Amino acid sequence: MKDTNHTIKTISSNDYRIQEGIARGTEIEIIVDGKSIKAYEGESVAASILATGKRSLRTTSKSYEPRGLYCAIGICFDCVMTIDNIPNIRACQTFVRNGMIIETQQGEGKWRVEP
Ligand code: FES
After folding, report:
1. With a 6 A CB cut-off, is 71 part of the ligand 1 pocket?
2. 3-class SS shares of the chain: helix, strand, coil, % to 5
3. Is the pLDDT of residue 58 over 90?
């Protein structure tokens, strides 16, 4: 993997969701880059992560530059992440599920197969 000087934002304890006048699903927990974050049923993975302030969801495959949400409608594939050990899943098109394990994807990502 190419070494870069790009900094990937870490998960913070901030919550950038609209706080009033929104009916949300049940609060659940997802794991993002090894850290537990709050999410709500009905949210996309991208929405839950962006609500923490994290903006980078992956790095590019050649220069390892950070990329985040772009189209938010499933067309551009700029938001792909590794979700439950499966790379190249569009975060903007995937609903959160309690206990989901999500990783910022590095380049093309890797399949992780349990023995
Ligand atoms: S942001 Fe374009 S496919 Fe997800």
Report:
1. yes
2. 10, 25, 65
3. yes
For 65-105, the pLDDT digits (tens) are: 999 999 999 999 999 999 999 999 999 999 999 999 999 99
Please identify, by atom number, the ligand 1 atom nearest to the C-alpha of residue 75: 3
One-letter amino acid at 27 equals: E
**Amino acid, res. 39:** A
Phi, psi of 96 (to 5 degrees): -70, 155
Q: What is the 19 CA–ligand 1 centroid distance (Å)? A: 25
Beta-sheet pairing, 66-67 with 101-103: unpaired
Domains and CATH numbers, the chain: 27-103 (3.10.20.440)
**Cβ proximity of 43 and 91 under 8 Å:** no
Q: Is 69 in the pocket of ligand 1 (CB under 6 A)?
A: yes
Longest Cα separation, the chain: 47
Q: Is any atom of ligand 1 closer than 6 Å to the C-beta of 76?
A: yes
